[in-house]
From TrEMBL:
SUPFAM superfamilies: DNA polymerase beta, N-terminal domain-like (SSF47802), Nucleotidyltransferase (SSF81301). This is DNA polymerase III. GO terms for biological process: DNA repair. Residues 53-72, 93-112, 128-147 form the Helix-hairpin-helix DNA-binding motif class domain. Pfam families: DNA_pol_B_palm (PF14792), HHH_5 (PF14520), HHH_8 (PF14716). GO terms for molecular function: DNA binding; DNA-directed DNA polymerase activity. SMART domains: HhH1.
Length: 213
């Protein structure tokens, strides 16, 4: 199914948007990605049976995102996504897999040091080039090296049996918040994969004047 392919693209679009400091839209793409990951039906079949209207009925998918899904189903690519990849030719998934390294930091690392991947990142950190960047410092550089060593040691994956108790604990803690209306565990955990790279939660909250978290 192409559900997972499109979901992966949407997660990366969310990262690119966050790199640029865009508000709200990253969450919209993440929400759509989670919906596609958890959609039991093949997205191609959904489109064949109900066309654009059926795509827009998927939770978290509005008209703009629906059009991008249809574009991928018809052409195998999304121009909006490709434009971002051309603008930021970095392996965003690989770099953000390092603990503590978010999209905005990836943007700065690429903008100043032209770091595109994990190999570039490790080389720059070992040469002491990251510590002198604005908002980084020596501690951040050390943490990056530790994060890279951890990824190499574990290959970024955890056994489901080891991580599941912690997932359930986090899920219970979130459910205990009165602002939380609904919570779903998504991604690899929901699909009960043997190994887990990260844990995704999709949380719906009640309208409130105060933030839930």
């Amino acid at each position: 199914m192409k559900n997972q392919e499109i979901a992966k693209i949407f997660h990366e679009i969310a990262d690119y948007l966050e790199m640029e400091g865009v508000q709200f839209k990253p969450y919209a793409y993440q929400k759509a990605a989670f919906s596609l990951e958890n959609l039991e039906k093949d997205i191609e079949e959904v489109y064949k049976k109900g066309r654009e209207k059926a795509i827009e009925e998927i939770p978290g998918v509005g008209k703009s995102i629906a059009q991008k899904i249809i574009e991928y189903l018809k052409t195998g690519k999304i121009k909006y996504y490709l434009d971002y990849k051309k603008k930021y030719p970095v392996n965003i998934e690989e770099l953000t897999s390092v603990e503590g390294l978010g999209p905005k930091m990836v943007r700065d690392l690429y903008g100043i040091l032209k770091i595109k991947n994990l190999k570039d990142l490790e080389k720059a950190a070992r040469e002491g080039k990251i510590r002198n960047l604005p908002n980084f410092g020596e501690k951040t550089e050390k943490n990056i090296l530790q994060g890279i060593r951890f990824l190499k040691r574990t290959k970024g994956r955890f056994l489901l049996g080891d991580i599941l108790p912690q997932v359930r604990k986090i899920e219970d803690n979130l459910k205990s918040l009165k602002e939380v209306e609904k919570i779903n565990v998504c991604g690899s955990v929901r699909r009960m994969k043997e190994t887990i790279g990260d844990v995704d939660f999709l949380v719906s909250v009640k309208e409130s004047k105060k933030p839930a978290f």
